[in-house]
Specification:
2 domains; elongated; D-Maltodextrin-Binding Protein, domain 2; single chain; alpha/beta; five-stranded mixed β-sheet
Length: 311
Amino acid sequence: MAATLGVAAAMMALATAGSPAHAQPARTAPTPPPPPSAAPQPPPPVFGATVDPKLKAVMVPNFWNVERRVERPDAARLPKELRFVTTDDYAPFNFLNSDGILSGFNVDLARAVCAELAVTCVIQAAAFDAIPDAIGEGRADAAIAGIAATPANRATFDFSERYLGRPARFVGKAQETLDTATPETVASKKIGVVSRTAHEAYLRSFFNEAAIRTYADLKSAQEALKAGQVDLVFGDGITLALWLNGTESAGCCRFVGGPFTESRFFGDGFSVAVKEGNDTLRHAIDFALQRIWEKGVYTDTYLRWFPIGFY
């Protein structure tokens, strides 16, 4: 779908220090929140998180409380064709593969939603800043493009329950003996972090006894870790997982402790966006997402795209 009209990309900003696979600075330029005075709290419970028996290090998150039953949608009120819009430049979430076919975690998840609702699935690509117009003008029914349910975005969209979070993580050398990451256990460590980000703000709020060293970008921090100039790097878990699973890390490193999921710093994660007021479709997508989790489809999809999990 051609990208014709734009909306300021800042309305889609995500509270992270980087973005998966390719840089999209317009999405990732939050103002760090003011440091709270309270001590860091443990991550909130993730209902039913599982460890795949074949990949014991991969914890698959679950954002659906299985004790809460979502009402099955009335098929007569649903469209026979569900039109999703996404982008094609945000690997591994939504991108064109070597055959020019739209692929990725979001694409597979959209298809699974359509299958659960027994509707025909149409997935179109658009420029990120053209997505609000596509939804608002009725050229698409739902957007699955890593859009955060921020207050600014809620002025334009209604959102499903979240289907993915953006936890922060520490990474250290593969031989690092530290298994936990608390203010006490890392107090003697040198920690690299990208400057002027929510991740730096979090470290200075809760891990300020450590030696915090800031870098202009994540790659510089990662290179410092590989060179032994810092003991740990703190940043966006998704981005770091993709680095650990890629060739640039050369198998140097691993996750240490975490995850850290405080929404005040790292946002509420990703949801499916629909036109404001389209409660019928929003509730149907919520139902489909929970059923996808219960059937194991979500787990299979997550493990396919994230062989090194970020939880």
